[in-house]
C-alpha cells in the first residue's frame, strides 16, 4: 500500500504520537500512515487522520475518505498548527462493526489564535477497511473562546475526522 506523501514531516517512531493516545508514533498511527498496517477500529482511523493533519499527509486523508463524500483534493493549510486531540466518545466502530461514530475535539492554532473543532464523525467499514464518511460539528458555545473554521464549515483543511 505505497503512497506518495504530500510532506516530509515524518515523525521518529519513538516520539509521542500526535493523536494523544499516549503511545509512541511507531506503535500507534505510524504504521497506518506508512502503509504497514490497516486501522482495525473507527477510532484508530480517526486518530490516524488527525496525525495525518499534523504531518500534512493529504494522501492518507484522501485514501481514507469514503468515495461518496470525498473531495477531489485537499488543501492543507500551512498556517494551521494542530496542538491536541481528545476523543470524547465512540459508538460502534469496533473490529466486528460495519459503522461507527467518534466524537472528538481537535485543537489548533491559526494566526496566533487558538481554536477548537468539536465533531461527531461517521465512519463505515468498506472492503475490510474503515473510511471517514462525514461529520457533524458541535456549535460553539462561546464565540470568544472558539471559532469554527471557515473552510467548508468543518475544519481548516476541509477534511476532518
Task: State the gist of this model.
The chain is an alpha+beta fold and 161 residues long. It contains three helices and four strands. The protein is globular and about 40 Å long.
Task: Give the class-level CATH name.
Answer: Alpha Beta
Mean pLDDT: 85
User: What fraction, in percent, of the residue positions are helical?
Assistant: 10-25%
Counting H and I runs of at least 4 residues, what is the number of helices? Answer: 3
Give the percentage of residues in beta strands: 25-35%
SSE string, helices as H and strands as E = HHHEEEE
By CATH, the architecture is named: Roll
Radius of gyration: 15 Å
Q: How does the SSE layout of this entry go?
A:
Layout: H1 30-33, H2 42-55, H3 58-63, E1 80-92, E2 99-110, E3 113-126, E4 129-137
Antiparallel strand pairs: 1-2, 2-3, 3-4
Description:
With 161 residues, the protein is an alpha+beta fold. The longest helix is centred in the first third of the chain and has 14 residues, at 42-55. Residues 1-7 and 142-154 have low confidence and may be disordered. It has a single domain, classed as Nuclear Transport Factor 2, Chain: A, CATH 3.10.450.50. The two termini are 21 Å apart. It is built from three helices and four strands; from the N terminus they run H-H-H-E-E-E-E. Strand 2 (99-110) and strand 3 (113-126) form a beta hairpin. Helix content is 15%, strand content 30%. A four-stranded antiparallel beta sheet has the order 1-2-3-4, with helices on one face.
Amino acid at each position: 500500500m505505497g503512497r506518495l506523501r504530500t510532506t516530509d514531516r515524518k515523525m521518529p517512531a519513538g516520539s509521542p504520537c500526535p493523536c494523544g493516545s499516549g503511545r509512541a508514533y511507531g506503535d500507534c498511527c505510524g504504521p497506518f500512515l506508512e502503509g504497514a498496517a490497516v486501522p482495525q477500529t473507527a477510532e484508530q482511523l480517526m486518530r490516524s487522520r488527525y496525525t495525518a493533519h499534523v504531518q500534512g499527509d493529504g494522501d492518507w486523508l484522501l485514501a481514507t475518505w469514503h468515495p461518496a463524500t470525498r473531495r477531489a483534493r485537499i488543501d492543507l493549510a500551512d498556517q494551521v498548527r494542530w496542538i491536541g486531540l481528545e476523543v470524547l466518545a465512540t459508538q460502534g466502530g469496533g473490529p466486528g462493526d460495519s459503522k461507527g461514530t467518534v466524537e472528538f475535539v481537535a485543537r489548533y492554532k491559526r494566526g496566533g489564535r487558538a481554536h477548537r473543532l468539536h465533531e461527531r464523525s461517521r465512519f463505515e467499514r468498506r472492503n475490510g477497511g474503515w473510511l471517514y464518511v462525514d461529520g457533524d460539528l458541535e456549535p460553539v458555545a462561546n464565540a470568544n473562546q472558539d471559532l469554527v473554521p471557515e473552510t467548508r464549515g468543518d475544519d481548516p483543511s476541509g477534511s476532518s475526522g
